[in-house]
Amino acid sequence: MRFPQPAPVTPPRSSIPVLLGTQTLFNIGFYAVVPFLALVLAQDFLLASSAVGLILGIRTFAQQGLFLAGGTLADRYGARSMILIGCAVRAAGFLILAASLWASTPVLWLFILGTLLTGFGGALFSPGLNILVAAAQTARDQEQHQQVRRATLFAWLSITGEIGAVTGPLVGSALWNWGFSTVAGFGAVFFVAIGIFLAITLRQPVPASATPTAASSRTQRTTPRGGLRRCLKDRGFVAFCALHASDLLAYNQLYLAIPLELQRHDMPTQWLGLIFAWISILTLGLQLPVSWLAGRIGAASTLRAGYLLSASGFFVLAFIPPSAFGNEASPLRILCAVTLMILGHLSVHPTALGLVPKFAAGNATGSYFGLLSSCGGLAVLLGNLLFGWLLSQSQDSSVPTFVPWLVLVIPLLLASWIGSRVVRDRLLRTHIA
Prior knowledge:
This protein is an all-alpha fold. It has 17 helices and two strands. The radius of gyration is 22 Å and the shape is globular. The model is unreliable at 1-7 and 206-224 (pLDDT under 50).
């Protein structure tokens, strides 16, 4: 059975503030609830840390790993529709999380179901949001003079998302005194409200080729063909996705490798909160300047430099001893590494998202966005397992202490070397065509 493919869409300019504001709202609702999942699993369900890690890892993979499915559905049924459905699914997930604690004995299978639905909801609405932002960015590029270099909408999306990521935990903490059921219930109501808001304010995009006098037959002729099959047959894009997955793997180490490194050197856990505050400061203060510089030097050069910056951060942790920064208890070494990692991420993440429409070349972009994120999710799942295993071996003196970090450094170096070449060749071919 063949599904109709929606034509290329161009959101009206008035939708841009809505799209950017939506990312803030999504992250407020998400980070008001999800950071407390590990605490609930350990305190209310009395699970061991290994079981907690497994459940949270499955939740992450349910979101990142299913982006490909979400992007394909957005291509078939429209980005706006999948955004609204995704809001409903995540609201249902948060409601089930709350319900799992309503009984006298907490119900673990309900809690796990709720965590999976929160992930799947994100896999539905995030590709749709990326599709609309990419369409708005394309229209913006066509309107502005070529010599004008402005921060991309994906850079702004990173900033608005970070605002939500900072605000969300504060909201959750304020509600925590009333119990996790209240926190999760707030998340459910909040996502219902987001869905209603978007249903009213997010207009249905129109075909890019449509005019007031265009006939429906003309719209049909401009319908992009391809989708998932075309995406998977694009060897250059598949190679880029596999290489760029190193960025999400690297960024995910803020939640795995960095806390473990603090613990290894017996540093106070309060430093973790300060490190995340520093990450927010870097993101809010430097994302626009980094994006402006990326526009000046080009996508291929930005990716090459960004991957190298992230690799340098892990190189610091692998080969430079804490004594070079003062003493074992000094956070300067880890702050230096984190700064390099974040500068790399700020460089390559918006750039990679902005390249997706160029790889798609007029075809439906949902599957392309989905594959990019799903490759990252798979890399995080496999990379974290390998990194964790090697780290445990290094603690037993079975392997040198720098070896686990090579799991993170080597993919970034390959991405810098090969990934930038793939992008340069594709952009050159597109320009010639």
